Prior knowledge:
Blueprint: E1 8-11, H1 19-28, E2 37-41, H2 43-52, E3 59-61, H3 67-70, E4 75-79, H4 96-111, E5 118-119, H5 125-130, H6 138-145, E6 156-160, E7 166-168, H7 178-181, H8 184-200, E8 208-212, H9 227-241, E9 245-250, H10 258-261, E10 266-269, H11 272-283, E11 288-292, E12 298-301, H12 318-330
Helix pairs in contact: 8-9
Amino acid sequence: MTDEKPPLAMTMGDPAGIGPELALAAWRARAPGDAPFFILAAPAHLSAVARRIGFEAPIIETEPGRAAAVAAKGLPVVPLEEPVDAEPGRPDARNAAATIESIGRAVQAVRDGAARAVVTNPIAKAVLYQAGFRFPGHTEYLGELAKAWGEPAFPVMMIWSETLAVVPVTIHIALAEAPKALNADLIVRTARVVDRDLRARFGLARPRLAFAGLNPHAGEGGAMGREETTIIAPAIETLRAEGIDAIGPLPADTMFHARARARYDVALTMYHDQGLIPVKTLAFDEGVNVTLGLPFVRTSPDHGTAFDIAGKGIARPASLIAALKLADRLTR
C-alpha cells in the first residue's frame, strides 16, 4: 500500500494485557507495502512496556492525519485524554475509561476520514463491567458507535481465516441462554449480513453458507431436540427463497473436517463455542475477528488479553498482524 490512503486506526485494548506489546511487535515486523497504522494509547505507557520487554521502539506522538508520514520512523501514537496506569498482568478497572476512549476515538477517526479501518486489541470484559460498561463485548459496543453514521447497524461477529470462517448466531451469552435466544428471525438477519458483506467486502460472487444444528446429530430427526426442525430449517428455507446459498442444519461434529469445509465459505453456528473452538484449533495464530454489518471495517486478533504472559515479551503478534493485513485488504 502507498500513503495515498489513510492509515489504519489501532486501539490499545486492555493496557495490562498483551495488546501494547503486540502493537510494538507489529510495528517492528512491518514490511514494504504494509499499511501504516497508528495506535490510540498512552505514549509513556507504551515506552515503559517497550523497555520492559527489551525493545526500545521509537514512540512518536502524533495525530491521525500525520501518522502515515511518520510510521517508517517509529510507532505513531495518538495520545489518549484519559490516564493510563497499568502494570502488565494486573488488570485494573481504573483504566477502563482509557480503554473505552481508545475504541471510540478509533471509530471516530474512520468517520472523519483520518483512518480507513479499526483494528482492535483485546479487552477484558469483566474489567470493563466493573467500571459500568453496559455492552456484552466489542461487537455490541461497535454497533452502538455505528449509530453515529445515521443508519441502523446489525453487528455480526465472524472469525475468519484462510482455513475456516465461522459466525456464531448467538454470541456473548451463557450457554444455558443460547437456546432461548435462538429464533428463525435472528438466524435470517445474521445470514443476510454475512451474505451481503462476503459479497461486498470479500468479493465472493455467491457465498456458500453452512448452518450447524444446535443439538447432537442435528437433532437426529427430533429425537435429540426440536430446534433444527422448528427454528433452523425454516430459517434456511427462507434464505434459500431469497437466493442465498444455504445448506443445513448439519451435525456440528462432522462439519469442520477438511472435506466438509470444502462445501462452504462460512459456517454459521448456533452458539459461541460451537464455532470458535474449531476455528481457533485450526487457525489460532492466523484467525481474525471481523465485525460484519457495520458501516466501517473492524478487525481484531482472535485471542484475549493473556494477562498471564503480559509483559514477558513472548506474546506472538501473528493474529494482530493478520488483522492488520485483512483490514488493509478489505479497504483497498
